[in-house]
Prior knowledge:
It catalyses: L-glutamate = D-glutamate. Provides the (R)-glutamate required for cell wall biosynthesis. The structure is a single chain. This protein starts with a strand and ends with a strand. It is globular. Helix content is 43%, strand content 17%. By secondary structure, it is α/β, with parallel strands linked by helices. The chain has twelve helices and ten strands. The model has no long low-confidence stretch (mean pLDDT 93).
Amino acid sequence: MANILVFDSGMGGLSIYREIRRALPAHDYFYCFDNANFPYGELSEAALITACTRLVSHMVAEHAIDLVVIACSTASTIALPSLRAALTIPVVGVVPAIKPAATLTRNGCIGLLATPGTVSREYTHHLITQFAPGQRVLLKGTTELVIEAEHKLAGRPVNMALLQEVLMDWMEGEARPDTLVLGCTHFPLLNDEIRQLMPGCQLVDSGDAVARRVAHLLATVVGRPSQAVVQARAYCTRLDAEAQKLTAPLQAWGLSSLEEVRY
């Protein structure tokens, strides 16, 4: 049994946590979100690296973490090298699922829906060049839908008019993508709403690939003897009234408690 930390700035990492726990249920999980600095896409690179490294290092030491998953594309593309240099345990990041999308598309047109930071990263463009040569990859960066995903998890209705406005130019015409890469971990939380607006479009995210990578790495991790009770708890960096509203939704995802990280 291992202690696995899944980390994000907000609730988007739950889409990754869900896939990992589904594949590997017999481990203890710690879901930590840095809501004091949310959203990460609005931080400078230096501030993001400092925030991630400090918080993740604290959680690793405090809870004897065996493996870390950075369930945030923005943090993965910016802070992963610093985190791996600071820690002695495996650290897994997430990247936009360009490679599987390139094998699935039928019309050769792929949409990448991500945060503005991920869309503009050189790393993202390298993935497209490497795995989707000769295919048309349309890029769209949005922070509004990150907020909408957070609202949905908290029980608020999704603003479908806003979602339609963001996706409008991909919803019609011969050049519309038939495969959509959800390049932010928040966006799988909006799967149903996106499918409603883009019926027939294949939605691809990184959850399954990350779960497979975690399973592979756990084979090299020396964890603790198995226990009868498996735990899953959530932590945040600011337990204010808004965060407390997330207690019930988090419990619905199998996370038994929500505590504030003190570091």
